[in-house]
Model the fold of this input.
Amino acid sequence: MNNNKQDDFLEVSMPDMTISKQRDVSSEEYGDLRKALTLIAGKWKLEILWRLYHRTHRFGELMKAIPGVTQHMLTRQLRELETDGLVTRRVFAEVPPRVEYSMTEATKALEPTIQSLMAWWQTYGKTAPIASRTDD
Done:
């Protein structure tokens, strides 16, 4: 039996806050989590962000790189990401027009979170029910 109080609860450290299962979570804290997840929720947003982690992309490159995405949906998701400050859209005054998308500092700050989600999936996600894996 471990007498160390630290081991009696789950603790996840984040900047300026600790989540433990031994205290009540305020609605405000949950609201912040919900807002953060809403920014990256969307059928294609994580894949768009993942590709932008590796390099800047033009619209056509993203279209080719993401199987199944429609032009309308890619445009919509990129606009939402831009509005939310996660993607920068740069338009060049050239003919034909050239537009490039890249990540912002806010997106770079998400990288450890994305890496943690990937590690979690490798450990636990493959046992998740199939119904939770669809995003229609």
Remarks:
- The longest helix spans residues 105-123.
